[in-house]
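Quick one:
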Amino acid sequence: MKFEAMPIATEKQIIESERDARSIWHSYYKDIFSEKQIEYMFQLFHSKEAIKKQIADGHIHMSLLLDDELVGYMCYYVKDDCLYLPRLYIKPEYRKHGLAKTAVARLEKIMEDPENGFTHIKKIRRNLSRKNTFAINIYEHLGFKKIREVTTNFGNGFTSDDYVMEKSINKKVK
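Output:
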């Protein structure tokens, strides 16, 4: 099985990403947020316009492929000595197959390569809804630790009580 993380950059890829994200996104949050909040947050983070703005702001969006089939997507950006991972989502039928672990390992490999310019990164950080016990357990298994609790305000009256989770990166000496 061949796992790939392919950058999303072209108009066609952005449109496909928006389409693919819709089903994946809704499946993650259907038991956590109202349908109205899910749709609001989808437009805020996953719409074609949102993705274009994020890319312009330096966020890197990637489609996750297994044997050339889309299995998920992720988005990350760098700020100071931290890689922020606001999105890493796997299709329901591919969950519990180690793909989140593979995606995080891929990010760590990207950070180790001096040619990528991320060697100063010391940690990966991610916010997760405190109600999302499935994802919290996965990230704890991957070595992330809860570092604080925050309430994230998305606007329009929508919030989420979150954990900020963080994983320290142990760089391999080359």
